[in-house]
User: What shape does this take?
Amino acid sequence: MTPARRALENPAMRSVARTGVKYALGGDTESVPYWLRWGLARAQAARRMRRLVRGTAIVWPEPGRALAMGRDLPTPGGGQVLIRAEASAVSPGTERAFFLRSRNTSATFPYFPGYSLAGEVVSATGEPPVRVGERVAAAAPHASLALVEASQVYRVPPGVSIEDAAFVQLGIIAINAIEQASIRPGDAAVVLGQGVIGQLLVQLAVAAGASAVGSVARTDRRVSEALRARAERVITLQRDGIEALEKFRPSVILDATGHPGAIPLALRVIEPGGTIVIAGSPREPCEEADLGELADKEVTIVGAHAGRLLQPAEAGSKRRAHGYAQRFFRLVAGQEVDLEPIISARVHPWEADWFYRRLARDDDAMIAAVFLWDRLEATDRMQRVSYLTGPDLAPLRRARKAGSPGRLVRDNRLSFAFMRGRLARTRGSPDEVLRIGLIGCGERGASYPRAIAAAGNARLAMVADVNADLARELGDRLGLRWGTKPEDLLESDDIDAILVCTPHHLHAAQAAEAARHHKHVMVEKPLATSLKDAVAAVEAARASNVCLSMLLQTRYQPHIRAARELIADGALGSLLGSTTIFQHDKLLGYWAGGYSGRSRSDWRARAETSGGGVLIHSAIHYLDWLGYLTGETIVEVSAEKATLDSPTEVEDTIAAWMRYANGAIGSLHAATCVRGNEPIGTVELWGTDGQVSLVPPHRFFSLRRVAGYRPGQWHQLPSAPSGGSDATEYFRRFAAAVLAGKQAEISAEAALQLQAVVEAFYESATAGKPVAVSQPP
Assistant: This one.
């Protein structure tokens, strides 16, 4: 048996083959798998000798996931029109149910959602009732292009916006329900449900002449200005109870909830001889309706979902649909129906996945929404495609070539020119220079002179160290004055700021003394070995009105700056969690002389002089990133630490979890006994709308459209240097702030908050229980 024959023996493959043939012959397209549709569209176009056009459509590849992706359509055949959409309306209740594959839904995935849009006719054949250039509305899925039968297109009259016209199919549903209700002047009507159909029904019932119209829902989260303006009474069952509804004495009830409990409720409160109209789509069977009450009250129940009107197959249905559409347009033009108060969201199509995830949360207060297709780039809205040669990419290349820095570029990276422009804004005038004195000429102190010189608005004026050999060597090498006492710098009139690079336990006292001498202060991390000492240093700076800042230069790495910009623009949404890892195979000689051996001392290995091990020495930078990037503060921590394989008093391993103020949960693991590793530090952040991975290659993913990036895809962050080293950028920005009389970007308050978090980790590890992070003054 041949492979093809074996494939056709499979029932699933036979079904695919049947739907494929049906599609190729011009039949239904929604049940055809997307991977098959691409080829079949070309086969169909080739058979009919028609070109293809490519637009962008919303597709659900599987339940609970949405994408905006290219979709090919043939140019119109006889009696068809091609519409370039500008807006398509979302029916939240219906689309939420199909998106989550709820009961009583029949979506076949991949699925193209939506059924109501409006735009402009761009192509038509034969003698259609509408012509190229006219504004129209039609029943079609969410897409930038729609190919529909000309008889199912509604001309949009003047006075009706395209955005309002996009709701035409929902208007037809609501008007059909009003017609079935046969509302007479003087009737008291109640609408159950405050979704988009419910809100339209309230306005239409008022327009139909009902003397009193009530709106009922379980909660008040969807009460709009339109309801307050049109409904005589807005009843919330959780607050007002069923009794408030019974007092309304309705003779007409329109159910737009789709909830099985709505019918028993309606039967209980409706007046004898009344009418109940079911305008929603019940998602579950109704098993609690009292048929005896139905008979005793002589109540009429009418089903009015209007499914036949949405896809009219008969001449009578077509006429009704067209009549209802024009009636809807007249009501909108006459302001008897006001859609603006019920549109909760206007969505860029690229943000479809973000939008539907939000919609899936049933507690969301969304009433209605629209996809705005005119926000797409021209090449995404409509593109001619040859069925033989593929897409015409010339317009796309031209659009990319003309793009501005910071927008989508070919390699999906942020423009380095854009980043350099941002970083250069803080450079001071060449004539203004901050004169810096360095205390501590050991390993860290000796590493900064080149960065200070490169800043352009700062210069190193003098160095000092209690070790005369270190001070002399560095001073002579740089051609600077040197001394052996901090006072040599503090009492010098030609020094504006002090850079403290001594062992940790000396930081706070030396910073406070520098502030008392009215010198601005930069402190190598950490600010202190305890929060108490850190607070004292900050208070001294405040009392002398000088800037105090902690040297956290890793903030200025290009990918960190880019990540912060993206998160500020909404790439993450609300923070949900984080993972922080630092790993290093720290050589044993480090504890006696640092990495360079320039200054031999065991202060790093002793808890009293260093304040801790891997956390305060190294992982502190990554803890700083968490707050700097997200704006969230850590409020509680729980930690375990140990010295597993190092000749020290301080920890070489720490593991912890943390809780943020907004409820997000994070974890941290840091160790300096990871064999074979150079220093590796990573942070991963995730939120309701995206993820930022600061793991090489640094990337981000977002459901939102930020900085011109297409949502739903991974994009790389810049990793090459821009504008000098990280330390250079720190000194440049600190000098610019001081020279302008402003607060330093990395403020004393930020240093205190970081110190409080570090102290909480150590306290928790010692006490063996979770600890709340102190809030420093």
Observations:
- The chain is about 35% helix and 25% strand.
- The chain has a mean pLDDT of 85.
